[in-house]
UniProtKB/TrEMBL annotation:
It catalyses: (S)-dihydroorotate + H2O = N-carbamoyl-L-aspartate + H(+). The lineage of its organism: Bacteria, Bacillati, Bacillota, Clostridia, Lachnospirales. PANTHER family: ALLANTOINASE (PTHR43668:SF2). Its EC number is 3.5.2.3. This is Dihydroorotase. GO terms for molecular function: allantoinase activity; dihydroorotase activity; zinc ion binding. It comes from Anaerocolumna cellulosilytica. Catalyzes the reversible cyclization of carbamoyl aspartate to dihydroorotate.
Amino acid sequence: MSILIKNGHLLDPATGTEGIRDIFIKDGLIQKVGEYLSEDAEQVIDATGFSVMPGFIDLHVHLREPGYEYKETIATGAMAAAKGGYTTICPMPNTNPAIDSKYMVEYLQLKAKEEAVVHILPIGAVTKGQEGTQLTDIEAMAGAGVVAISEDGKSVMNTVLYKKAMTEAKEAGIAVFAHCEDKDLVQKGVLNEGAKARELGMPGISNSVEDIIAVRDIILAKDTGVRLHLCHCSTKDSVTMVKLAKEERLPITGEVCPHHFTMADDEIPGDDANYKMNPPLRGRADVQALKEALRDNIMDVIATDHAPHSEEEKAKSMLEAPFGIVGLETAYALTITELVQEGYLTPMQLVEKMSLNPAKVLGIDKGSLAVGKVADVVIADPHETYVIDVNAFVSMGKNTPFHGKRVSGKVKFTIVDGEIVYQE
Ligand SMILES: NC(=O)N[C@@H](CC(=O)O)C(=O)O
Ligand SMILES: [Zn+2]
């Protein structure tokens, strides 16, 4: 298939290109980028007024397959990704069984190849069954194609074991993605510790639950030399620690989720589990620190932590319901609305955080629309304003606190390997 994208506003931070360009795609690759291209193409897309960007790369999604297909499948999660402008997503290994062996990695890849409309790059578990006791065969999983290891959903609390995992990941040439949460300190917390938790009479989760493990993991990464990526950073002290680590030139990157820069805990209307996720919505000062950290490039990546659950599960009290909200279909709009329109990020920075930097974290040749690159492209209207409606989601998960929120920014086309996989 050949596609000619006309008159779009190209945003390609990898080459420093920002401006009106035409792009000619053929045989799955970017063939030409220029002004007034007139190539013959099977499909011409008029992208006047739209941004044309390298496809978004999500370092943190939960696809729920195998084991929890009633929440999401590889097929539905990938379709939600395409609708959100993502062309590559990295599923976390907390499935049932967990992605904790070469065989499970191969199973996931095979299913993804058959069923997913976007690229799937799996992440392997750190310990077998994510039970925290026995390391997985990290070298074998890396050989099978995992791009990182992570115990996401929890932390590896045994420091000796985790250090060994980091050493092995370093040897295998892959990164460690850290979910920072002190399992003992969190106790039974369900939302941020503070006035809202007291008002609802529910146990809180302090910032230190995250901060203590973030410090530990940064120190372990310094000891082992592994590339460490801190998932879903939610606190102002996480920001400070990533800043210090960068000043020391440690290979550490930080990720922020749209919900953590969009909403503070004081906006939780009551006992509604669509506002329950891990880490929780934090205080105003944390939200502000996260926005500034993205602006100042202390935080490198915006990732969704797309965590679908069934309506039945999320209809329960916050005390009972599982943690997590969906994010693939709202991330671009929340980033435009909360960060670009508010002056925290330039459009080029948005592309860095959602595409180029994630590619760098993974060490893959994506995140750019330069000639010769794979044609993974998103075309979006940054100005279109609308109201988020869960009934329009293609994800099986409808669990979001942003239903009814007015936002700007809508994905129009998503192109994977030169093929249109989503069109509004
Ligand atoms: N973030 C969440 O609240 N939940 C995630 C796990 C995780 O990313 O920690 C899930 O798998 O549901
Ligand atoms: Zn997590």
